[in-house]
Specification:
heterodimer, A: 316 residues, alpha+beta, Elongation Factor Tu (Ef-tu), domain 3, Rossmann fold, Ubiquitin-like (UB roll), eight-stranded antiparallel β-sheet, five-stranded parallel β-sheet, 7 helices, 33% strand, B: 193 residues, alpha/beta, 2 helices
Chain lengths: 316, 193
């Protein structure tokens, strides 16, 4: 899908920073200035699918974004890669062209915050790097707690080394980290930002809520938990039946069937891809629909949500 | 004119403790809080930590004293120690403020400066509507205004009190009453009715 918002980029540099992490530096293919992006923004790359299937659209947070110097992303090789992260790791080389959306920000820093508490888990470090760079420049109050698998602590230390300081803490595993005590000690006016595995982010939300934090001070960024049981999707208006594989999202299956449907963040946050449900029970995984809307069961976010029933009928 | 349709008069909801909060602090510039300040079924007992103003209080208040009632000798005294208290507070506190409108918004300002958002405070103004009026011509604040026309203590013009409240300045807007047609003075109305 190409539109006016599509950016034509090329790979300026790509280097492995760990066996499963590759940093890719992208610039405009024609050398022009790129749109600016605030910390927390992401772009969606169009990546070729293996065996000539429909292209994949994977969203990556910008680790740094400069209209002149270009965009930087860090891509983790997914064990269950559908081909996107594998392509970035194994095929993408300097000089290659690549299409991307303009940056969108669904994980922005709160301008009124007195303090920013950053909690990253694993590859969830990417927005944190952009945040730390920005907050340092602003002289703002912040604290970063990055959780890494014990074997990867060194990788994260090296990654954060240029920004190191007493306000950056790297913990070997989630158990090495006292979340409740940390949240309980935060002064009024603190905003917390979590990015990482769903379990970590749910834990931050639950612990903050239990301590009386208002929801408006708790921010999270999802990568979109793909995967689950396969099911069948029926598009009532067009009469198309689509099999959604276990390692495929509903949105990808709809796109693979040749049906164009709007989408933006592909992470269950923005609400752009929302579709009407006429039969079946959705399994909601987004952060957009309210409890009441979920209960009504009439809407679904196909980018992350799945189906509890064997068949889900959409009114499109 | 003062009660035109373009009013942004603050609306207040009666107070009730937020069940999601970790701690609650109720502050007032009165000694006795009207029952109307509380939601149905809610009363003083639902706010174990309370700060009030008692002019001749003889015991020094303890801003970190925890549950109990602390008496302050003036609203200014209370607000100064509220600033001190909030600077040392952690997330999860809710602030409840009731009293005169100027006091309620002074306390809200202290809370905002301490980093609290609107969802962390509950405000309820009580008593006779007495307005603090800011003269748009000379910036003088005229306290205790109860009528739609008032002579500015700063520049001496007769102001009409518009139904426009600034949450930042904690004051109602006062504009020269005959600014459009010199000499045409509107009828005076009672704001406290």
């Amino acid at each position: 899908m190409t539109n006016a918002r599509t950016l034509h980029l090329k790979v300026a540099r790509a280097d492995g920073i760990a066996p499963t992490l590759r940093r890719v530096h992208l610039v405009a293919a024609d050398g022009a200035r790129l749109p600016p992006a605030a910390p927390g923004a992401h772009i969606t790359l169009t990546l070729p699918a293996p065996a000539g299937g429909r292209p994949l659209h994977n969203s990556y947070t910008l680790v740094s974004a400069d209209p002149e110097a270009g965009y930087e992303v860090i891509v983790r090789l997914s064990e269950r890669s559908r081909g996107g992260s594998r392509h970035v790791h194994e095929s993408l080389a300097p000089g290659d062209g690549i299409e991307a959306t303009a940056p969108h920000n669904l994980f922005a820093l709160h301008s009124q915050a007195k303090k920013h508490l950053l909690i990253g888990g694993g590859i969830g470090v990417t927005p944190m790097i952009a945040f730390v760079t920005h907050l340092r420049e602003q002289g703002a109050s912040f604290e970063l707690h990055q959780i890494a698998a014990p074997a990867e602590v060194g990788v994260f230390e090296a990654l954060l080394a240029p920004r190191a300081g007493e306000r950056i803490h790297i913990h070997a595993g989630r158990d090495a980290f006292g979340l409740t005590a940390l949240l309980a000690a935060q002064p009024l006016g603190t905003h917390v930002y979590a990015c990482g595995p769903a379990g970590l982010m749910d834990g931050v939300e639950a612990a903050a809520a239990a301590l009386g934090w208002p929801e408006t001070h708790v921010h999270r960024e999802d990568f979109g938990a793909a995967g689950g049981e396969p099911f069948v999707l029926r598009l009532a208006a067009s009469g198309i039946e689509i099999a959604v594989a276990g390692d495929q999202t509903m949105l990808e299956a709809i796109e693979a069937a040749g049906v164009d449907t709007p989408s933006l963040c592909r992470g269950g946050a923005c609400g752009v891809c929302m579709l009407p449900v006429s039969e079946g029970t959705p399994e909601h995984r987004d952060h957009y629909l309210s409890e009441a809307e979920r209960g009504a069961g009439c809407l679904v976010m196909p980018c992350v949500s799945r189906s509890r029933s064997a068949t889900l009928v959409l009114d499109i | 004119m003062s009660t035109g349709t373009a009013s942004n008069r603050p609306r207040y909801a009666p107070l009730a403790p937020d069940p999601r909060a970790r701690a609650h602090l109720l502050v007032t510039d009165h000694q006795d809080i009207a029952e109307a300040a509380f939601a149905p079924g809610i009363g003083l007992a639902d706010f174990p930590e309370r700060w009030d103003v008692v002019a001749h209080a003889l015991v020094l208040p303890e801003p970190f004293g925890g549950p109990g009632v602390q008496h302050f000798r003036s609203a200014s005294h209370l607000l100064a120690l509220l600033r001190h208290r909030l600077a040392a507070e952690t997330m999860g506190l809710r602030l409840y403020v009731t009293g005169s409108e100027p006091f309620v918004w002074d306390a809200a300002r202290v809370a905002i400066e301490a980093g609290m958002g609107r969802e962390e405070m509950r405000l309820f103004a009580t008593g006779k509507p007495v307005r603090r009026v800011s003269c748009v011509h000379c910036r003088t604040i005229n306290p205790g205004v109860t009528t739609t026309l008032v002579t500015c203590a700063g520049c001496g013009v007769v102001l009409t009190v518009r139904d426009h409240f600034s949450r930042v300045h904690n004051a109602w807007m006062g504009v020269q009453c005959d600014a459009e047609v010199p000499g045409e003075v509107p009828a005076i109305e009672d704001l406290s009715a």
